[in-house]
Amino acid sequence: MITLVIYDITDDIVRNKIAKTCKRFGLSRIQKSAFLGDINSSRRKELISKLRRILGKNRGNIQIFVLCRADFALREVIGYEEFNENEEIVLV
Amino acid sequence: MITLVIYDITDDIVRNKIAKTCKRFGLSRIQKSAFLGDINSSRRKELISKLRRILGKNRGNIQIFVLCRADFALREVIGYEEFNENEEIVLV
Fold first, then answer.
1. Global pTM?
2. How many CB pairs below 8 Å do chains A and B form together?
3. Which of A51, A77, A80 sits opposite B78 (nearest CB)?
4. What is the 3-state secondary structure of chain A?
């Protein structure tokens, strides 16, 4: 199943940990605060549990969505997705 | 169908226009740069067309996802969603 993680976290350290965890689980960055990838249900649950632990009592919001193939096929992308080595968006 | 709009836009004016358009189409803010709501297919297409026009040649990325009920039921939310009158997240 395709998994989408979007987050809104002001603390740099926490935010970076969230991004690293998403990457470690095989998700790809699609926006500054959004990751997407195809992972199975048990891995997704593991990821959710890790994200929950990382956020802990810190301020912020993380949302995890699951998309079936049919839904994913309807995705629309406007503009460009571009990131540099530091995983920040490069606005060329 | 449930529609999720996520965006990554640095220009304040463009970003605000995107947010206002999402609101006008009946979507609710769930994160600083994410809106969610139940709109039909033709309204979604109209929204996409408007968002495309607003972004125009400006830098940024907007992604629109469609979620069926079964997928949406798997959504996980970690942390709080809180916004003030100005639609910015209130971190209490």
1. 0.89
2. 119
3. A51
4. CEEEEEEECCCHHHHHHHHHHHHHCCCEEEECCEEEEECCHHHHHHHHHHHHHHHCCCCCEEEEEEECHHHHCCCEEEECCCECCCCCECCC
